[in-house]
Amino acid sequence: MNIDTREVEQIADPLERAQAADTLLATAELMVKHLKKLRADAMSTHARAVGGYKAANDLNMNRTSMYRAIRTSVSVDVIEHDESYWQRQAAALNVRLRGRDKTKEGIDVWWNLTRQPALGQRTPLQAWIAGDREAVLALVP
């Protein structure tokens, strides 16, 4: 699907070009809003049909991101790059580790030096940086 902007680009008068671009932009924004709703409904239906873990795998997403995309209708790219969300997840993970009687030093060792088979023999920090954040979070329920 393409949105053809050539006609707008060829308008010589800047005011007319801006107005035409604004009209085209409003149409595109409505289309995006509708597509997000369609995607969220389809993702939700698929998750109900096959289960959350399989659906997330089918969609090449982690489960948390998939359900957040369904709930909020934001794009997957926004979720994957939402650093404040992932910082909160890391902080919550540290709280769970503290609940297991780990000291601050013990938590640092866990993140930076402990190779985990479930992470392909990487440390949690290496996996986190590589984007395998859900796998790291799953290590400490």
In words, what does this structure look like?
This protein has 141 residues and is an all-alpha fold. It folds into 2 domains: 6-76, no CATH class; 83-138, no CATH class. 72% of the residues lie in helices and 0% in strands. The protein has 9 helices and no strands. The chain has helices at 6-9, 14-50, 52-58, 63-72, 76-80, 83-99, 104-113, 124-129, 133-138. The longest helix is centred in the first third of the chain and has 37 residues, at 14-50. The chain is elongated, with a radius of gyration of 22 Å. The model has no long low-confidence stretch (mean pLDDT 85).
Average pLDDT value? 85
Tell me the series of helices and strands, N- to C-terminal: HHHHHHHHH
Number of helices: 9
Overall number of strands = 0
Strand content: under 5%
Approximate helicity band:
over 70%
Shape assignment: elongated
Distance between the termini: 43 Å
Overall structural domain count: 2
Radius of gyration based on Cα positions: 22 Å
How many strands, what sense, and barrel or not for the largest sheet? Answer: none
Determine the structural class based on helices, strands and strand pairing: mainly alpha
Q: Which spans have pLDDT < 50 for at least 5 consecutive residues?
A: none
Q: Which helices and strands occur, and which strands form pairs?
A:
Elements: H1 6-9, H2 14-50, H3 52-58, H4 63-72, H5 76-80, H6 83-99, H7 104-113, H8 124-129, H9 133-138
